[in-house]
Specification:
Layout: E1 2-4, E2 10-16, H1 19-22, H2 39-49, E3 52-58, E4 61-70, E5 75-83, H3 88-104, E6 109-112, H4 118-121, E7 125-126, H5 144-151, E8 155-166, E9 183-186, H6 191-208, H7 219-233, E10 239-244, E11 249-258, E12 271-279, H8 288-302, E13 307-313, H9 318-326, E14 329-340
Parallel strand pairs: 5-6, 12-13
Antiparallel strand pairs: 1-2, 2-3, 3-4, 4-5, 6-14, 7-14, 8-13, 8-14, 9-10, 10-11, 11-12
Helix pairs in contact: 2-7, 3-5, 6-7
């Protein structure tokens, strides 16, 4: 589709289906680098979801992009929404095309932005006043984006805050309040070993994380891709399990994500995201969160990691634990938007 505005600029709008072509335009919708080393993780998710790119060109040059994909439900997800120059009229045009695409394909909801793979490119539009430094999973945008989406009838579905700061090192085994003799903390050494526990990992997360914490659709089909990224750029301590020894049952697990965009003065990656943690209901209030945080912090320090970011849905009660016991600060806020059709 080609059209011309009053200034005689020619605009071209097209939908791209080829993942290898789509990847050329993702840079428009994120400040996080599209490194070639990330291509295999990006292409995996694009191909899995059969994602499409709604692409806008001006006088033959790309100026705007939004990725659209579906998990087979009546929800159309979008991500990588961005316009070069952030001009109001261009943003509104692309929002209209997003809505038009959803209506034409009989979706009932539009939700996003979720930038697959989310462990690298994150989700949400960043609220004004947030820390805009480069960090994995933390997209940056001017507030005009969410303002114009809301103008077009979108509303805030969920708000994610990022608790950040120095990793608090402590030895959980010395906490007198709890007795961890019946528990084993461990980390799979590689992908093959992780595969033995993947079923427990997926079960515990799906049954115990609140719905607002499960932002990326079909995570159970993406976990191998995510785990490969963690082992390629991070360390084994980033996949966390706790076993109840008397029953030989996995009762808690969690995930950290490496941040390859930040290094210390000796060239070591020095930061990560505390991405998820989940505990079976009957094993809560036994200090297992402190066991996971403490033992993971010890192993992180051994690998020269000193800084952490922990995204939490604003209404989640975990916020009080993070703020009061880990002494982190709310540095960034991202909002996920939704529109009913």
């Amino acid at each position: 589709m080609t059209f011309t505005n009053s200034n005689e600029n020619t605009f071209n709008f097209q939908i791209i289906n080829d993942s290898n072509e789509i990847i050329k335009y993702l840079f428009i919708g994120t400040n996080i680098p599209i490194w070639q080393e990330f291509y295999k993780y990006i292409l995996h998710d694009l191909n899995y979801f059969k994602a499409k790119s709604i692409n806008l060109k001006k006088n033959g040059n790309p100026i705007g992009h939004v990725l659209v994909f579906s998990d087979g439900s009546d929800v159309l997800y979008f991500g990588y929404f961005g316009l070069l120059g952030h001009f109001r009229e261009h943003i509104l045009f692309l929002v209209d095309k997003l809505i038009e695409f959803a209506e034409k394909n009989n979706f009932k909801l539009i939700r996003g932005p979720i930038n697959i793979p989310a462990i690298i490119y994150g989700w949400g539009f960043m609220k004004e006043g947030s820390d805009t430094s480069l960090f994995i999973g933390k997209p940056v945008n001017p507030p005009i984006y969410q303002e114009l989406f809301i103008e077009k009838g979108f509303y805030v579905k969920t708000e994610e805050i990022s608790w950040e700061g120095g990793i608090l090192w402590f030895n959980p085994w010395k906490i007198k309040k709890y007795n961890f003799n019946e528990y084993e903390y461990f980390n799979p050494k590689n992908l093959r070993e992780f595969s033995k526990f993947k079923g427990d990992y997926l079960r515990i997360h799906s049954q115990n994380l609140p719905p607002n914490a499960q932002l990326t659709p079909k995570i159970n089909f993406l976990m191998d891709n995510y785990a490969e990224f963690i082992f390629d750029f991070g360390h084994s301590f980033m996949l966390i399990f706790v076993r109840h020894k008397p029953s030989d049952k996995i009762v808690a697990c969690g995930t950290c994500i490496p941040n390859p965009f930040r290094k210390d003065d000796k060239g070591n990656y020095d930061s990560c995201i505390a991405f998820t943690w989940a505990i079976e209901p009957e094993y809560r209030k036994k200090g297992l969160s402190m066991l996971m945080f403490g033992e993971t912090s010890r192993r992180a320090w051994k690998m020269k990691m000193r800084y952490i970011s922990a995204p939490v849905e604003r209404e989640n009660l975990t916020n009080k634990i993070v703020e009061n016991k880990l002494f982190l600060e709310n540095k960034r806020t991202h909002i996920i938007l939704e529109k009913k059709l």
